[in-house]
């Protein structure tokens, strides 16, 4: 039963503790801006990384020690993994989890058998949820690992593969619905292309939109009211991913009339791979009222691929939490650790060190974000920077009542405007002060 | 009068010529797919690079030898430059040109004086156009060089600067209209931000949209019917540019109800800086019926900034011309050489070598593109790849009449689909064959 | 016996052929600069990519169709693969091959058994070589895939793993020697580190040098006279690879007194990942008389990892062949296709399309390089650019006989020097002319 | 006299202070590991950024407000700038400075006049040094801004330009010597190339080495005993810089017999542009006993060029200071702020905010580094990770007494080694604990 026999339930011990198996900052019931840390964070664990990531990479096989796993495709093995995972959730004190259908149950190269296996494991997970109170943040279908999807699923050149993908999404939506999942995510694994020489981009995007409209219709039909998400990512695994960043996703959603039905699930490492900061991507989504959930991790900007490292950079976590507070907090979303240990950190205990580090990093980020807001200097400087927009001139422009002729007359009558400093360095000093 | 005394009018001499001052492939009146090369290309020269680029860089001053320029801010000097430029256009046999207001006329740190100078030079340019038959592809306002715009123009935190920018756009639109410009371009020079700590992104984007709506209104008012363009670019000069790529621009245009009024002017080096290929950006724009014009150049993908090199890569020019042919050719747009010589190529004759190289590279690209289309193999393979979408199954999905339930039933009744190879390597071999 | 029944022996049919299974430029016995193409190229095929690459990636399993493989770790399966590989070599008309020990024979998680299996397969390969005349370009040991090497081999923090690596190199050198391998390569798979927090760089590099000195000693002992190579690569798989580029390798070899014993095996995609062009890396190696062999492939500079694509870019192959001609040709080295088909090109015939494309691209590159040399314009411009160095002033400096005092006197007596244009655009035009 | 009338002398006020014009962590006389912060840091200010950087960029002119500067090339203006600079040094409490010859004195396009002007300003600086006690960390010659150097100085294709460069270095060395400079730096501004089509790399590197040997000889002749440095940097301004990173510099120094005479001056933003971390570059230099001095700044890894931002990232400063402590501190070197304010931070007071932020960031970095060393956990884990190297097996290998045969026998007799976790996440948690 105890698959992590040496690991106690991780508890808050405060910043002075030297216990590597304790939280130093994440204190679930501590109130920040009147809400508990637990409710601010809504931490989720990723089934794929915790239970199914062998830590292989393109140059070598798996290193992860997983004594509970017999590496078979049996439903029994899948259920045993689920038991281990819930022990992990309990010990690490994380309330939510996320999965792909093929993480929790085997791909059996036969649609009927795979779906049957999925349903069996879903029942088992339902029992574990009930027993522990853990909840499903979101579910998704893995439409990118199997060779049939090597050229896309919703954007496959093969209509039969597209149909297969739809059937798989339906089953994953059923599973998510049954488990009370608060969201359902589309990550466009292979929705993109390798070369335009063999690709009809417009036709593929039309198909992708058709799939998403069917998902919206199906949710309505079965009474699933969870939130749909798209997760942007560039370059990987397809050289050219359609959903490359927040703007690309929003453009797609607007073009195909889907913006009312979808929000974004934004991942830090995907943002930086797209050449943006995470806070840029969050802000773009928020401006469209479309920030839904967050995949919490971090990348290595000196590397050109998705390293999915555990979030440890306090600048990063602080900036994320500033945005989350600015938004008024998550509703259906949360902070899902889409993060893996380094390949060299192959022992089970490293799973705990890694998650503890990520949770503490976000707890400190939350404290910093709240401190920035309480301190007020940064916010005041931002407000003051736009002060001219609160004058008559600015108000008229903002009201859409100005014209080029009129503004030209105004300019002719005025001296050259003198711009104030942007004060980036001072703002960074203040942020460091509060870190 | 002859500022390039050693340079003859550049003529077509065919592929065997060793004359460095001759075209080896650009034969203006040669028909390709029934249209002259001249009409396919609609080449444009960039006033800023030809006449105003001193070839300075962040580590050193200008090197360009420009004996005709007295480096003063006088209108006379500006007119003399215009004369030299038109001599250049005639000798290089380019029919179109593009300018920023501050390229053709001096910025005098006083709105009225700057506008007066602009108008004087515009009259002079009108005379030169009439005398030579050269035409204006598009005009634009430089809203990024002057310190007043250091924090943006349409997205300035200062409403007075915004107004100034509007007045400058009005004057530049007037100039473009007077010169019969076929388009008017917005490149978001400093429309972006350096740090979110001092930036209200949503408010700034609202302002930018307001400016563009005023431009649309003003065009209507003055009867200007040329095409508006937005030119996407990431990172430079603002760390975070709002118009970072085609998708970001389209998203903005859709959100603010501007998509009917704007097309995109896409530049190769901006595409690659955004992490996309040029043909990706063109295809994204075409899928939205929004490809307007092209800034022809190329970057160095080992460098992280806009090198604006002259286009010499035949793969690049072939892929661009394939897209242009696929679109049915330019209407208002063209191939504007937004390209500069390397800083070490500082002699006037290098301007000719550089443009000859770019024009020949595009002429070969056009021939390759036409050969690919005539050959048919690549097109056939692409069509065949989507064959299942032309069956009943595919047609039903494309018609929006399929559902998850129905597709699931279909999948259950079928064997596993077997995917055909994508054949990228063979396609690349065929392209090489035709190069 | 015929594992590629539909594939004939690939033959030269000339540039007009439309046969996708024919060479259009690679004509093995055609003489270029007095030497046959075959001898210029010394093409090699990579056992790992042709026979062992399932085309999996971090987001999905293998797609490659390999009907001859039973996916067992048996020696019989290994021998059968060898038979298929030699059929491939014969049909594609490639004379050389390269291998890692663990490509040709199974890793059996037991040193003695693995070595025994290796020896058995080596005997089988020896027979195949004798029967076909094919030769081994170089061998190597795979010191990066197995979990034991996850933290390095020659730079492992664990001395036992280091010893294991040495034993494996010894066995791989024995195999290479037995098969008449003309070279032996070290690619520092995991020789690097993930974080300096747990790494003693100096100590690790001392160990790596110790391993290489033992290899030199062992070669002497067994009478192996083949060439040792180091293959530079940055970032992958270790975040920080010690042998990141040519300069880093040369620095290491100089520091540890190994420069007489090693040359470099340079790969195009590794060069670009390091931020250099391939021709830069080749030139750096040649300046140290240390260019040994080439891993022929190409990357996608918009992606941040080693895509190992088949070389198709004619600019790239031309520039490589220019350097090879400049060096006077390969001695022990050759052009080894360290290249894989895209994951979507999963059919056996794609192996042929891919290699045909690569061989033709290099054949054209060789023709272009020879044409550049015959044409002479580029070489003349280069020579003329350094003309002042052939004057008395230049000669004195080059002879090491000048001093600051003397040169200052000279400068004081002279007018400001006027620099000639670097003519980059004209040079690129000439190169395009000859392509 | 008081050019910064509103700025007091910046004083330490402790972490609770909200005064933006106070140090919160840099307390010059506070002892850390028994040495004052002042002596640990040896902060330097960069004359070029503080006094001569107009904050122009490739897309716009200068924005910096510098009321003291008449923008003339007069020696009087140069002297006045020096006065302002020393007022700055006093108020910001920085002890050292660095300069290029052309920062402190005008380039007059005539060697004799420029040198005369330089000497006049040097005398003035000598007086200011005496009056204030400020010292010169290092001097250097600007061999990259003037058009004559557009194709290199020490690697110019023109021997006359090379000679000019030597004469300029001589004068800059004289100036440095006269001012008691503790070092003299070579940054290879344009020592590299744009295209290999016109470049003889080997010949150029031979020339560069000749220049450096002349510098060594000249130092000996005049009795200058300061330390020579090379500062590595990739890509900018030459596309291919010869001194691209620490390893490239060390390789060059070893090849040309210069390693005894030179150390490296390593800049954070140059390290990251080269694809390395700063701590990697420092460690590489330290392993060769060649770490001399540091240019303190930071880059934006989402941008592809040298942004030279002020260092604010506490992870970065902590890792740098860990290395500096590990080395035993600076001897001739120091922390020179080769950093500029953002273009939007154009007011004089921003110079103070920026330097205060950088100094406080390094002060915190020093405290964190000392805490990591005092805590001991990270160091202990590192030591323990290499424990097997302290056994007989490891010792024998390290002594150079092992052979492949012997190690193979050992391996055959042992079970498979089992590797311990690298514990990267735990190490990062501990670092965060101590931040
Ligand atoms: Co994710
Ligand atoms: Co990810
Ligand atoms: Co452009
Ligand atoms: Co550009
Ligand atoms: Co390789
Ligand atoms: Co590779
Ligand atoms: Co520096
Ligand atoms: Co720098």
TrEMBL record, chains A, B, C, D:
Organism equals Luteolibacter arcticus
Compartment list = Cytoplasm
- What's the record's note on cofactor binding? Binds 2 magnesium ions per subunit.
The record's Gene3D superfamilies line, in alphabetical order, gives: Divalent-metal-dependent TIM barrel enzymes
Listed A to Z, the keywords are: Carbohydrate metabolism, Cytoplasm, Isomerase, Magnesium, Metal-binding, Xylose metabolism
Xref: PANTHER family: PTHR48408, XYLOSE ISOMERASE
Enzyme class label: isomerase
Show the InterPro entries listed in the entry: Xyl_isomerase-like_sf, Xyl_isomerase-like_TIM-brl, Xylose_isom_bac, Xylose_isomerase
What EC number(s) does its UniProt record assign? Answer: 5.3.1.5
Where would I find the Xylose isomerase-like TIM barrel domain in this sequence?
143-300
Q: What is this protein called?
A: Xylose isomerase
Family classification: Belongs to the xylose isomerase family.
Q: Which cofactor does it need?
A: Mg(2+)
Top-level taxon = Bacteria
Q: Give the Gene Ontology MF terms in alphabetical order.
A: xylose isomerase activity
Q: Where is the active site?
A: 100, 103
In terms of NCBIfam families, this protein maps to: PRK05474.1, xylose_isom_A
Residues the record lists as binding Mg(2+) 2: 267, 270, 306, 308
């Amino acid at each position: 039963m105890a698959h992590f026999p040496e690991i106690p339930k991780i508890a808050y011990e405060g910043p002075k503790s030297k216990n590597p198996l304790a939280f130093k900052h994440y204190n679930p019931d501590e109130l920040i801006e009147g809400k508990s840390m637990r409710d601010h964070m809504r931490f989720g664990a990723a089934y794929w990384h915790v239970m199914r990531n062998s830590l292989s990479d393109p140059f070598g096989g798996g290193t992860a020690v997983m004594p509970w796993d017999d590496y078979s495709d049996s439903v029994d093995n899948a259920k045993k993994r689920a038991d281990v995972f819930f022990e992990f959730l309990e010990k690490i004190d994380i309330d939510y989890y996320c999965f792909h259908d093929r993480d929790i149950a085997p791909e059996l190269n036969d649609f009927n058998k795979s779906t049957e296996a999925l349903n069996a494991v879903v029942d088992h997970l339902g029992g574990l949820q009930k027993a522990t109170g853990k909840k499903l943040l979101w579910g998704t279908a893995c439409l990118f690992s199997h060779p049939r999807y090597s050229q896309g699923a919703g954007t496959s050149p093969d209509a039969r593969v597209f149909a297969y993908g739809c059937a798989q999404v339906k089953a994953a939506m059923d599973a998510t619905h049954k488990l009370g999942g608060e969201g359902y995510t589309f990550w466009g694994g292979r929705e993109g292309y390798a070369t335009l020489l063999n690709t009809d981009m417009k036709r593929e995007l039309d198909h992708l939109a058709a799939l998403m409209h069917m998902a919206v219709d199906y949710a309505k039909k079965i009474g699933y009211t969870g939130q749909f998400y798209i997760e942007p990512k560039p370059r990987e695994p397809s050289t050219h991913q359609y959903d490359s960043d927040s703007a690309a996703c929003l453009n797609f959603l607007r073009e195909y009339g889907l913006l009312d039905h979808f929000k974004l699930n934004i991942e830090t490492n995907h943002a930086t791979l797209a050449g943006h900061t995470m806070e840029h991507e969050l802000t773009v989504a928020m401006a469209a009222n479309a920030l839904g959930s967050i995949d919490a991790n971090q990348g290595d900007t000196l590397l050109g691929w998705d390293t999915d490292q555990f979030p440890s950079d306090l600048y990063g976590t602080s900036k994320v939490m500033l945005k989350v507070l600015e938004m008024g907090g998550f509703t259906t979303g949360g902070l899902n650790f889409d993060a893996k240990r380094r390949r060299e950190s192959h022992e089970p205990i490293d799973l705990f060190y890694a998650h503890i580090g990520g949770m503490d990093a976000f707890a400190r980020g939350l404290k910093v974000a709240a401190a920035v807001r309480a301190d007020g200097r940064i916010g005041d400087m931002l407000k003051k920077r736009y002060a001219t927009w609160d004058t008559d001139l600015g108000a008229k422009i903002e009201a859409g009542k100005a014209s080029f002729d009129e503004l030209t007359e105004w300019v002719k009558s005025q001296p050259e405007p003198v711009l104030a400093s942007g004060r980036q360095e001072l703002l960074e000093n203040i942020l460091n002060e509060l870190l």
